[in-house]
């Protein structure tokens, strides 16, 4: 049964704990999924973040939507949470002064885009605005600790959410390692990524959870032997409005006086 991985037993056997709920940018009570297959909405093109496109819901699992951009192929489906900030009801883009764009790899020539748009929206069932849930607040800072367990999207198989461990912490990033798998699936992400969830999330929302893989299992001692991590360098520090860049800008604006030149008074 994919819904009932025995986290309790696993945490006990591995002598580990789950990262606390407050570490995550996820609602403590995850929202209900009120979308259904076939409805259309607006989504950012994941391959071209400046474009807002029409997308169709082609799958629904727990609080996640499988989306396909209209005018694109079925090889570039992507997943969003119902409380994601980058999905909106049809009409949102235009009402905020933007224009709907063809997806990257639009399968017709650019001049047919307007006609295509008209056709794809005519008679379409659009997702009601009440289906779109408010994005959770971001934790104020990175509270993750090495060794804590979590549930994480496998970005190479994004339909999967899998048992994982915080392998490293660096500034605003954590290194997500997948239990029982070689390092090929591991990745760095921000602490406020929407792809990571507290232990128990999948069970609570009715999403399958992929249990730890078989690599490194069944070795000496515990059934679950941890591996030596191969940790790639963390991503470079991103500038943010609250980060050090803002601080240095503010400092740069300060008038030079004896109180902030470092001069002894
Ligand atoms: N079928 C794939 C799935 C791997 C999923 C790993 N998730 C961490 C494979 O065996 O490569």
Give structural notes.
The structure is a single chain. The protein is of the alpha+beta class. The protein is built from five helices and ten strands, in the order αβββββααβββββαα. The strands form two sheets. A five-stranded antiparallel β-sheet has the order 4-3-2-1-5, with no helix packed on it. A hairpin with a 7-residue loop joins β6 and β7. The chain is elongated, with a radius of gyration of 22 Å. Residues 242-265 have low confidence and may be disordered. Residues 154, 157, 160, 162, 178, 181, 185, 210 line the site of N-methyl-lysine. N-methyl-lysine (MLZ) binds next to loops.
Structural topology:
Elements: H1 7-14, E1 40-45, E2 48-61, E3 64-69, E4 78-81, E5 87-88, H2 92-95, H3 113-121, E6 149-153, E7 161-170, E8 173-178, E9 187-190, E10 196-197, H4 201-205, H5 244-253
Antiparallel strand pairs: 1-2, 1-5, 2-3, 3-4, 6-7, 6-10, 7-8, 8-9
Short description:
The protein is 14% helix and 22% strand. By secondary structure, it is an alpha+beta fold.
Structural class: alpha+beta
Q: How many helices does DSSP assign?
A: 5
Please trace the helix and strand order, writing H or E for each element. HEEEEEHHEEEEEHH
Bound molecules: N-methyl-lysine
Helix content: 10-25%
Whole-Å distance between the termini?
71 Å
Mean pLDDT: 88
Shape: elongated
């Amino acid at each position: 049964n994919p819904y009932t991985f025995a986290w309790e037993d696993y945490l006990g056997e591995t002598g580990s704990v789950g990262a606390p709920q407050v570490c995550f940018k996820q609602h403590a009570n995850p929202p209900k999924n009120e979308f259904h297959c076939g409805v259309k909405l607006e989504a950012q093109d994941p391959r071209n973040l400046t474009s807002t496109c029409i997308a169709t819901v082609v799958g629904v699992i727990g609080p996640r939507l499988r989306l396909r951009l209209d005018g694109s192929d079925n090889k570039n489906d992507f997943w969003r949470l119902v409380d994601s900030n980058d999905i909106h009801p049809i009409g949102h883009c235009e009402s905020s002064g933007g224009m709907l764009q063809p997806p990257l790899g639009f399968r017709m020539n650019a001049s047919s885009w307007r006609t295509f748009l008209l056709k794809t929206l005519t008679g379409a069932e659009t997702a009601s605005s009440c289906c779109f849930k408010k994005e959770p607040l971001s934790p104020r800072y990175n509270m993750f600790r090495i060794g804590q367990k979590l549930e994480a999207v496998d970005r190479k198989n994004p339909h999967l959410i899998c048992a994982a461990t915080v392998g490293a912490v660096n500034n605003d990033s954590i290194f997500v390692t997948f239990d029982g798998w070689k390092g090929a699936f591991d990745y760095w992400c921000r602490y406020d990524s929407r792809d990571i969830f507290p232990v128990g999330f999948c069970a609570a929302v009715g999403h399958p959870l992929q249990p730890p893989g078989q690599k490194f299992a069944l070795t000496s001692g515990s059934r679950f032997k941890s591996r030596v991590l191969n940790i790639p360098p963390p991503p470079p520090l991103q500038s943010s409005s609250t980060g050090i860049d803002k601080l240095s800008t503010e400092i740069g604006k300060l008038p030079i006086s004896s109180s902030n030149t470092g001069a002894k008074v």
